[in-house]
Write a structure and sequence with these properties.
This protein is of the alpha/beta class and 244 residues long. The protein has eight helices and nine strands. It has one domain: Rossmann fold, CATH 3.40.50. Helices cover 33% and strands 17% of the residues. Helix 1 crosses helix 2. The radius of gyration is 17 Å and the shape is globular. The termini are close together. It binds 6-phosphogluconic acid. 6-phosphogluconic acid (6PG) binds next to loops.
Length: 244
């Protein structure tokens, strides 16, 4: 059964996510000497990024041991308002002593195909090419169609075995080509943390909690990492439904 935690609104959810992020980073560094995270895009992580940027414990992390990747990106340059890199850069990375060589942004300006190939090479450089890369933490969101990263319902990317693939502009906002890591990589993560807020996600969250066929419809429900935790706010969670 998926592990759901319900918070009062997006603020409590983001505060808890910040604590988990820092804790996860410390544990990974203690155990393996480095922390490798895949950040998500969308709007929900913005507040988390702010909280981390202002957090003394986060600033004091050994940033030379923190490696930053993204789970997906839009095919736009790093200064574009749609860029997932820009979101993290503006709200978190610009405010902490991260090492530039540890930031592996997906180069959307190359176009989705070349950017996917470039990201694959970055992953090989860091994780090696033996076995599927294991992120210590994969931060994830979920769209109102149940997509996660840029894995959209009923698309070829869902069955891809390559670590990272390009995706033709989905019928979603923004309607632009994407690059995404795939389910084998998401499922190999040590911890997958979903952040989901708002009434628009409530129906899908209910189905993911209670309907075993949800993974047939919603890519987010297909993610089964070593540990998968859902942080949802009370708008996204129907508390009258008992988990099965
Ligand atoms: C993206 C994403 C995407 C996002 C969800 C949730 O680049 O669009 O990474 O998977 O996480 O769509 O987005 P919100 O947080 O805005 O609801």
């Amino acid at each position: 059964m998926a592990d759901f935690h319900v918070f009062k609104g997006p603020e409590e959810l983001s505060q808890a996510a910040a604590r988990l992020f820092i804790d996860c980073a410390h544990k990974a560094i203690d155990l393996r000497g480095r922390f490798i995270v895949a950040l998500s895009g969308g709007s929900t992580p913005k507040r988390l990024f702010h909280i981390l940027a202002e957090d003394r414990n986060c600033k004091a992390m050994p940033w030379e041991k923190m490696l930053i990747f993204w789970g997906d990106e839009r095919a736009v340059g790093p200064d574009h308002e749609w860029s997932n890199y820009k979101l993290a850069q503006d709200h978190l990375l610009a405010h902490v002593p991260v090492h530039e060589k540890n930031v592996f942004r997906i180069k959307g300006e190359l176009g989705a195909k070349l950017a996917a190939e470039d990201m694959r090479q970055d992953m090989i450089n860091i994780f090696g090419d033996q076995g599927v890369p294991r992120f210590d933490l994969a931060l994830q969101g979920m769209g109102t169609d149940g997509h996660t990263a840029s894995l959209f319902p009923d698309t070829d990317a869902l069955t891809a075995t390559d670590w990272v693939v390009s995706v033709i502009a989905p019928p979603a906002n923004p309607n632009v080509d994407r690059v995404t890591i795939t389910l084998p990589v998401l499922n190999a993560a040590r911890l997958s943390l979903f952040l989901v807020a708002g009434k628009g996600k409530r129906q899908i969250i209910s189905e993911i909690r209670n309907d075993p066929t949800a993974p047939w419809r919603y890519p987010a429900a297909c993610v089964k990492a070593e540990k998968t935790i859902w942080y949802v706010d009370d708008d996204a969670f129907d508390s009258t439904l008992a988990d099965k």
